[in-house]
Amino acid sequence: MAKVPVQFTLNGSEKAEFVDGGTTLLNALRDKIGDTSPKGGCHQGTCGACSVIVDGELRLSCLTLAETCNGATITTTSGLAEGGVLHPLQRAFLDTFASQCGFCTPGMIMAAKVLLDHTPNPSRDEVVEALSGNICRCTGYEPIIQAVLTAARANSQNAA
Amino acid sequence: MELRKSYFADVRKDDLHEIGQARPRSDSPGHVTGKTTFFADRNFPGMLHLKMVRSPHHHARIRSIDTSEAEKHPGVVKVLTAKDVPHNVYTILILIQIGPEDETVLADGKVRWKGEAVVAVLAETERAAQEAAAKVKVDYEVLPAVFDMEEALKPGAPIVNEYHGQNYYLYDSGECRKVRFGDVEAGFAEADHVLEQSYQSSPIEHAPTETTGCVVAPEGNDRFTCYTNTQAMFFTLDNTSIILQMPGSKLHFVGGTVGGGFGGKVDVIVEPIAILGAKLTGRPVCFIYSREEEMQISSPRAAEKVVIKDGVMKDGRIVARKVTGYTDAGAYSRHSPYGAQKGAGHYPGPYTIPNVWIDTYCVYTNRTPSSAMRGFGVTIGDFALEVQMDKLARLIAMDPLEFRFINAYRDGDMKAHRQPTEGAALIECMQEAARAANWPVAEKYMAMSSYKKGA
C-alpha cells in the first residue's frame, strides 16, 4: 500500500512519518510515533478517550486522518507537564481523585484543557457540556467536574 | 467522615488511623500524565492482529468450515480452528473442582450462542485479518434455540449444552442450590398475610472504556509473555496452562492495569487463543475486542428471575420466606453456577426469619454467556428483596424502615444457611441512615442494638 508522508508538531517536537493512506491520527500517534497517551476505547468517535488538541481545537483522533494533520500543532496529555511540573488540570485530577482506572483520563484532560483555554472561568454547566463527549465508567463524573472547576480556580488565582 | 469506634471495639485493634484520611493513589500520577501502560500500549515489531469469525446463529450445527480463501488473503499468516487447540473444551472454575468442562475455545461441531468464536484469523494488519475473516465459509444447520429460562426448564426444550445434558447446572444438591430452615409451610399457615411476587432483570453489560484484550510476545525460548487486562491473573494463567497443555513456567503474565473491569474481565477468553497464535507463528500477537465485541460478546451480568413468597404478621414479623431464584448463565457456565449459589446463601436478606426455603437454579439458554459483575448473584436479589420489603410494609400499613428494624438480624441470630450472625451492625446503620435522612422512627427502634442482651 502506498505510504503517505505526514509532518506535524507534537507537544513542541517536530514529527515526520510515512503512514498508510487512511491511517487515523490515533494510530499514527500510538503505533508510529509512540505517544500512547490517547486511548482507543471505541474507534468510532463515541467515547472520547482518544481526544487530542489539533491547532487549539478538540479532536477525536480516532476519526481524524493523520494525513489531514500536515503542518498542524498537536497537543496530547503526555505533553502537558512542563519540566516535570504537572499542569494545573493534572494536579487537580490527582487532588480530587478524578481518575480511577485512568483510561478515560488523558481524553478528559484534553477536553478540559480546550474548555479552560477558551473559557478560563467556566460555570459548572459549561464544564458538564465540555466533558459530555467523554465517557467515564468509574467515577460517576462528579470528581472530574470538581477537578476542572478546581483547576480553573487555581488558574485564576495564579493570574491574579 | 465520622468513625464510630464503639462498634466492633471488641473485635479489632483501635488503630484505624487511616480511615477517613485522603491518601494519594500510587497510580494516579501515571494516569494524569498519560504514562500508565495499559496492555494495548505495548507494541512489538512484526505483531500480528487476531480477528475472530463468530457465529451468526443462536444455535446451529457446523457442517463444515472452509478456510481456504481466507488463508490465501494477502497478509494472512495463520488461520486457527478447534483442531489447533490442544485442550479445546474447558471451564474456568475447574480450578476449584467446579465442572464439567462445557465451553469450547473455538467451536467444534456446534455453536450455542450468537457471537460464539468459531475461527481465529491472524494477519499482518487488523484490516487484513478482518477482510480474511469475512472469507471464512462456515456451513451451518440452524437448530431450535431457547432464550427464556422457564422455557428452557420445560420438558422437551432444546438442549443448549450437551456437556450438561439438561438445561440447568447439576449441583451436588440436585437441580438447584437449596436452603431449608424451619418449616416454611407452617410459617405460611400461621401468617396473617402471604405475599408472592416475581421480579426479573435483563443482562447488563459492564461497558468498560478499555475493551478486553491482550498482547502476547514470544520470548524466543518457548516462553510467552502475555500483557493482559484480565481481572483474574492467576485464573487466566492456570486455565491457559490447561487449554494449551503448557506448563505454567512457560507462561509469563503481566497485568494489573485494567481500564475498567467491574467483573467483565474475569473470564478466560482472549489469552489462550492469542498465546496459541504466538506459539504457532513465532510472532507477537494482539487480540483486542472491538467496541461491538465488548458490548455483544463479553459476558454480561446474568438475567435473573426471583420469585419471593413471604408470610408476615400484623405486628411486622416475617415468619416465612420462600425464594426461587433463576440465573441465566447463557450457553456456558463461566462463573454463573457460583453466582446462583451465592444467591441461595443471600436470599433471606439481612433479616432473621424462622422459616426459610430457597431454591436457586443456574439455567442454560442460547444467550450470550453471563458471568461476574459487581456482586453478581446478590445485587439483583437485593433489588427484589428490598422492593418486596416495601410491599410487605405497605401491606400491613407499617413504616418501611420500622418494618426493617423489627426483622433486622442481630448478633447471635442463626441465619438460614446455619451461619450465626456476627458483627451485624445493621440496626446501627439504619439508625444512622434515619438520622441522616431525617426519617422519623419510633424511639424504641432508635434505642435498639445489634448486640442482644445475653447473646
Topology, element by element:
The complex is a heterodimer of chains A (160) and B (455).
Chain A: E1 3-10, E2 13-20, H1 25-33, E3 51-54, E4 57-60, E5 73-75, H2 88-95, H3 105-118, H4 124-130, H5 142-159
Parallel strand pairs in A: 1-5
Antiparallel strand pairs in A: 1-2, 3-4, 3-5
Helix pairs in contact in A: 2-5
Chain B: H1 28-33, E1 48-54, E2 60-66, H2 68-72, E3 76-80, E4 89-90, E5 103-104, E6 110-111, E7 117-123, H3 126-133, E8 137-142, H4 149-152, E9 177-181, H5 184-190, E10 193-201, E11 213-218, E12 224-228, H6 233-244, E13 251-254, H7 270-281, E14 285-288, H8 291-296, E15 304-312, E16 318-330, H9 336-346, E17 356-364, H10 379-395, H11 400-407, H12 426-437, H13 443-446
Parallel strand pairs in B: 1-14, 12-13, 16-17
Antiparallel strand pairs in B: 1-7, 2-6, 2-8, 3-7, 4-5, 9-17, 10-15, 11-12, 11-14, 15-16
Helix pairs in contact in B: 6-7
Overall description:
The complex is a heterodimer of chains A (160) and B (455). By secondary structure, chain A is of the alpha+beta class. Chain A folds into two domains: 3-79, Beta-grasp domain (Ubiquitin-like (UB roll)); 88-159, [2Fe-2S]-binding domain (DNA polymerase, domain 1). Helices cover 35% and strands 17% of the residues of chain A. Chain A has a five-stranded mixed sheet, sandwiched between helices. The longest helix of chain A is centred in the C-terminal third of the chain and has 18 residues, at 142-159. The model of chain A has no long low-confidence stretch (mean pLDDT 96). By secondary structure, chain B is of the alpha+beta class. Chain B has two domains: 48-143 and 207-296, Aldehyde Oxidoreductase, domain 3; 177-204 and 300-422, 2-Layer Sandwich (Aldehyde Oxidoreductase, domain 4). Chain B has 13 helices and 17 strands. In chain B, the strands form four sheets. Chain B has a seven-stranded mixed sheet with strand order 3-7-1-14-11-12-13. In chain B, helix 6 packs across helix 7. The longest helix of chain B has 17 residues, at 379-395. Chain B is globular. Chain B starts with 27 loop residues before the first helix and ends in a 9-residue tail after the last helix. The model of chain B has no long low-confidence stretch (mean pLDDT 95). Chain A binds chain B through residues 30-31, 34-44, 46-47, 49, 76-78, 80-81, 86, 89-90, 93-94, 97, 99, 101-106, 109, 135-138, and chain B through 22, 24-25, 27-38, 40-41, 43, 206-211, 257-262, 290-291.
